[in-house]
Every structure is written in C-alpha cells, then in structure tokens.
Design a protein that fits this description.
By secondary structure, this protein is of the alpha/beta class. The chain contains ten helices and ten strands. The strands form two sheets. It has a seven-stranded mixed β-sheet with strand order 6-5-4-7-8-10-9, sandwiched between helices. Strands 1-2-3 form a three-stranded antiparallel β-sheet. α1 crosses α3. The protein is globular.
C-alpha cells in the first residue's frame, strides 16, 4: 500500500480526517490550502496552525525512499505527527524520532499511538530545538543521523540553528530536508547553510511549500540527483515563469506574452 494511503487511514482510524493537497484557488486563494490539517467529528477543524506536509510533499518523500536508506531519522516540528509518521513509513528500516515543544501533548501521544499501531520503530517526544536535539538523538536513536526534516520555527536564524544542531549529530551522508523555505522567505538561511557547510543543495520550487534539500554530493547517487532535478528549476526560468504568472493575474495571456 502506498505511504500516503497508509498514512491517511491511520489518522482516519484515530478519529481525524486529513484535509490536504487542495489548490489554493479552490479555497479562496488561501496560501496554506495544500498543507495537512485535520477534521474531527465532521465539525471541528484541528491544528490549523500546525499543518503537516502537503499531499504532494508526502508523495515526494515516498519516492525519495527508493533512493535513500537511512538508519536514523529526526523530525524537528512534530505537531500532530503527520510528517513524522510519513517519514517512518517511507524509511521503514530506520529508527525515527519526532520532537516538538508544541504545548499540547496530545500531538505527541497521537503520534506514538500511530507508531505502535503501524509497528513503526521510533517515538515522538517533547523537546525544543536546537537545544534539545543532541539529547534526543542520544536517548532515542541508535547512531548518527542519516535523514533530517526541519519544520519548526520559520525564520532564517532558526533554520540555520536547527541545521547546525543536527549536523553535529549527523553522519557524513546525512540528507537534510527543510519545509516552507519559499513560503516563509527562508532562502537566505538555506543559502547560508550551503555556504557554511559546503554541502550541495536544491531549492525544490515545484513543492507546495518550496522545500529545500541539502546533501553531500559525493555521498548520493546519480539517480538521487536526477530525482531532485524534476522538482527544481533553473532560477532564471523560474523567475521568468513568475513574471508570466504575474501578467496572467492582470488579465493578459501568458502564452501570447511568451511569443512577444
């Protein structure tokens, strides 16, 4: 069964219906429409400010699982566990820890119940990044980090701090995936990470949040690089397409513009 299908029904069985993957245009142009929140009892929307990976991003992650074989995974920003469980399902051979200082413990409890039901190796724990990263890795994982997903405080400073906290506990072939880089204007922080760490990276412009990924080029396969290429753009091409989109919203036909 595909990762997304297993993930979806795990939350349905827990009494939460995932709402995810929507076109913003269909929901009054709401920027966060693609991301995952939950409906409980057909009435109450839960965790609207704690959305997880979009449907398309879970699918990106699932296919990434055919190209990587990490042993220890860390998710910074667990919330209700959607991204943590998705990671554990993607990398079933790994041990996975999700951490969050989200003030309502029910998110951690829910994650751990789903882990147990799906027989996944890992846990979700209370912790604040970056200061608690090292302790959580030492206590709950079995070795250096091989895969990290950062989805915590959405500032350039926090992004850089979270990266270095995980880098200190990581193997040389660790892959770092960052959520919301474009949506929250964290390109400067991502660029700083690449410059200071000497890692290679891509801005995944074709993911709903504008994720970014960093890695040691000599430690990944050609197939991995080719896969990322599908989700990335040449910056000049991307900026040009943005310009066409801007013109479209002003009532002009972008295909006519392209030929002008």
């Amino acid at each position: 069964m595909p990762v997304f299908q297993t993930l979806y029904y795990a939350y349905v069985d827990a009494g939460l219906v995932p709402l995810t993957g929507y076109n913003p245009w269909h929901l009054h142009n709401w920027r966060d429409a693609p991301f995952t929140v939950f409906l409980q009892g057909n009435e109450e929307i839960r965790a609207t400010d704690q959305g997880g990976l979009a449907l398309q991003e879970v699918m990106f992650l699932e296919n990434l699982g055919t190209l990587l074989s990490p042993k220890n995974c860390l998710i910074i920003g667990n919330a209700f566990g959607w991204s943590t469980v998705a990671t554990a399902l993607t990398f079933r051979g790994a041990k996975t820890a999700g951490m969050d200082n989200f003030p309502v413990n029910e998110g951690l409890d829910l994650t751990n119940r789903i882990f147990k039901k799906l027989d996944l190796d890992g846990t979700a724990v209370m912790g604040e990044s970056p200061k608690d990263v090292a302790g959580i890795c030492d206590e709950y994982l079995d070795g250096p980090l091989d895969f990290v997903l950062v989805d915590a405080d959405h500032t350039n400073e926090a992004l850089v701090a979270d990266f270095w906290a995980t880098k200190r506990k990581a193997s040389s072939d660790c892959v770092y995936l960052f959520h919301d880089v474009l949506n929250f204007n964290m390109v400067d922080g991502f660029s700083r990470i690449l410059k200071e760490s000497h890692l290679d990276g891509r801005l995944l412009t074709k993911t709903p949040s504008g994720m970014a990924i960093a890695y040691e080029k000599d430690k990944v396969s050609r197939a991995f690089i080719d896969y990322l290429e599908v989700f990335s753009d040449d910056l000049k091409l991307y900026q040009g397409y943005r310009k066409l989109a801007e013109q479209t919203t002003k009532g002009r036909n972008p295909f006519l513009l392209y030929n002008e």
